[in-house]
Amino acid sequence: MQGGARRAGLAGIEGDSVMTDVHRRFLQLLMTHGVLEEWDVQRLQRHCYQVHDRSAPVEKLEDFIHTINSVLESLYIEIKKGVTEDDGRPIYALVNLATSSISKMATDFAENELDLFRKALELIIDSESGFASSTNILNLVDQLKGKKMRKKEAEQVLQKFVQNKWLIEKEGEFTLHSRAILEMEQYIRETHPDAVKTCNICRGLLIQGQSCETCGIRMHLPCVAKYFRSAAEPRCPHCNDYWPHEIPEVFDPEKERDAGVPRQSRKSLRARQH
């Protein structure tokens, strides 16, 4: 992400009457994370009120973020809401709208590292599962642009993509992090038009999901769970044939709140990287 340029741009709007110190601190902290789950965003908002305006009522999160986005619009930056593909948890990410998605990573990665990401992205998009094995990615290192890269170096770069929340690794396979999907949807649709998969329910970009074995339509796992929530016998929304897959369990804020599961326990149970 182009942190230096962005901070310079934010300095130019410090005097905006709409943005308070609470909003500015929230934005600065979100910039350091890139993407956070909704629970963490709400906690971050409360922290900023405690630091800067303890006596003020905490604004509704949607309105609070709208205020920030109205100022960021001129900088082609937006705090964007999405959900994780595997279990439907709400997330927020700071998205740069001004440049092509791969170039957003240019300040953090070398040319050959960016090309490794492009090749991993292509394998992920082209796959049926939405995952690319580390073996298949590493087999492409000889084709990278720029400085030559050994496979051992490429393994370290892949872990750097994970640490920076561009990729997620599960059992030796890689898929796109929710942050990457939020930031790169338009880029992926433009550069891989023939390989792009779309959810039949929400019409959003689909990387991981389930598909009908009869007509081939695809659905995000959270969309599957919501669509078939009250169905006695799940049937495809397009061809009405029997839906052969297990209906997944996804994030339910009410159940999670009632269960009272500590946050760290939830994260360890999910074994996901956010």
What would you say this structure looks like, in words?
With 274 residues, the chain is α+β, with helices and mostly antiparallel strands. Helices cover 43% and strands 13% of the residues. It has eleven helices and ten strands. The strands form four sheets. A three-stranded antiparallel β-sheet has the order 1-3-2, sandwiched between helices. Strands 4-6-5 form a three-stranded antiparallel β-sheet. A two-stranded antiparallel ribbon has the order 7-8. Strand 7 and strand 8 form a beta hairpin. Helix 2 runs antiparallel to helix 3. The radius of gyration is 20 Å and the shape is globular. The N terminus and C terminus are likely disordered.
Topology:
Layout (H helix, E strand, L loop, with lengths): L2 H9 L9 H13 L1 E3 H15 L8 H12 L4 E7 L6 E7 L14 H16 L5 E2 H5 L12 H13 L3 E4 L2 E4 L1 H14 L5 E2 L6 E2 L3 E2 L6 E2 L1 H7 L25 H7 L3 H8 L4
Antiparallel strand pairs: 1-3, 2-3, 4-6, 5-6, 7-8, 9-10
Helix pairs in contact: 2-3
Strand order within the widest beta sheet: 1-3-2
Specify the biggest β-sheet: 3 strands, antiparallel
In terms of DSSP E residues, the strand content is: 5-15%
Number of helices: 11
* Rg (C-alpha, Å): 20 Å
Span from first to last CA?
17 Å
DSSP summary, beta strand count: 10
Which structural class is indicated by helix and strand composition? alpha+beta
Quaternary structure: single chain
Q: Can you give the mean pLDDT?
A: 85
Overall form: globular
Low-confidence stretches: 1-17, 261-274
Order of helix and strand elements from N to C terminus: HHEHHEEHEHHEEHEEEEHHH
Helical content (DSSP H or I, runs of 4+): 40-55%
